[in-house]
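User: structure tokens for this one?
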Amino acid sequence: MNQLNALGRLILVLLIGSVSGVAQSVLEIRVIEESAISYTGFLSKARFDQRFPGQIKAGPAELDSGWYVIYEHESLSYYFGPILLESTGQDYLKQLTQAVDAAVQQRPSITDYRLELSYEPSISESESESEKSGNGSPLPPPPPSNFWSIVRSVFGF
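Assistant:
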């Protein structure tokens, strides 16, 4: 009877551990340089992962500030970036959208994915982080995404 009880507790611990491991892996995101988007159309997932391992982050709050092309599907969370200019990010988003559309045509079972351009970490995440740390000062707004604004700031106009 005691052995059966011990076995039941062991199974329960293993189940809880595996569920928390799955929950933890879902929250992790992989940050990959944006130039890797060019390779998404012709490399297999295994070869892509080998060539572009990226960095694993626990969540969007840990990201460097910038624009990210985000692709999420089931347990995959790829954040391509950070990208300095929004317009450059839009070009990369268009390129990745074409690759994803081609993949969906070949495998219509691919559904419920998220593909977008987003400035990260988002304002709400940054505010919640500053509240947690006790630092009440808000973060500065995102950098200007207009090329001419950057040129003006460099030359002091």
